User: What shape does this take?
Amino acid sequence: MAVTIEFGDLKRDTSTKQQFTRISRSLAHSKKVVVLVGAGISTSAGIPDFRSKSGLYGSSTPATSKALFSASSYSSQSALSAHLSTLSQLKSHISVASPTLTHTFFATLKRKGKLRRVYSQNIDGLERRAGLESVQVEGTFVGRKQSSCAGGSEKGKEREGDYVPLHGDLGFVRCTLCDYVGKWEGEIGRSFKVGETMDCPECLSVQEARRLSSKRLTPLKSFLRPSITLYNEPTFSSSSETISSLASHDLKSKPDLVLVCGTTLKIPGFKTLVKDFARAAKERGGTVVFVNAEKVGGKEWEDVFDFIVLGKTDDFVQRVTTEWKSLRPQDWERQTKLENQPINGFDSTKRSVVVSGKPSQPVTPSKRMPLSPLDLNSLPTLPFATPTTPPAPSFSTTPSTSPTVSGKRKIHAYVEVQKKRKVVVRSA
Assistant: This one.
């Protein structure tokens, strides 16, 4: 049975505070956090959600009705025109929006080494602006080989990226026929704003190649569209494979904390994803938390979540972060030291030496000795072969004794060094 926490009760109810601290403790000690989010985490950035009372579906005007976000928008030219102009207005809100505290919290989890992945239903791309790297799901990056990201030997393997755009990204457009994906910008944006489509440049180049080859030309039936998944629209087969493979890998890693934030849990595929990750976390003894401004679901979710927090996601992440700092201050002290280091990773001052019973004294860096001449640097370092001027010959009448074996070796080494020295000097 899930424990329900009204965020407003935290100021006056001690038992509610204790329950919330259990969530904070789970976060503080977690190592693999999986986050699943919906449009509710972006409302504080000025981007409307869909199903709340003030959302896009709450309006009775045809321009923001649910039908304009379904696959039926492509059934007629008038519906398509209204669809494109509506999405253009939504993108204008997104272009001036900034990541919320919730998005920033996800980036903090990444920096602390706790984040496993964020699975996002949102199409605004604010996760990317907050500092998370997007997994290359087909249709959400520029490149012709969109279908090469999934399937085959890659299935079930680790993939780069911090968040998964489950329903696409409004920053990109794709062709209705081929694999072409481009950015939503410039002339494309101006055409969508007035409800008009644009031809696919890749399909145009193919048609031009046929014309130059004197081949029969066929009518161009493709066009560019926003690269998002609509209601009642099948997802790209390659995109579904990528998401399924990635989720399978993350489920095997056994997350110890699952956060579900800002969603009404209406999309069937997303509901299945939430239940799968909740089950995997509980098998490991982890915690599953649901955070939303409004209560959703019913008995279906009572055994799925451990905690249901009713409140704004920004308020939730602020409080849970504050308690995390109190429960494990070492997590934040370590990060502070890293952030205070110079950018190049080197510290020009040496650490102080602590001697028992004496105050610590800073050790100043030793002065670097000047380099020796180039020819001396080139000589081998031998204790008996220091390159100095040979001594003057002795004219003593005392008969000299024959050098010992050790002396012969020293003389031979000295002669060899002098030969090398001459070679070095000449080359210099």
In short: The radius of gyration is 34 Å. The beta strands are 3-6, 33-37, 115-120, 163-165, 168-175, 181-183, 224-228, 257-261, 287-292, 307-310. The mean pLDDT is 80.
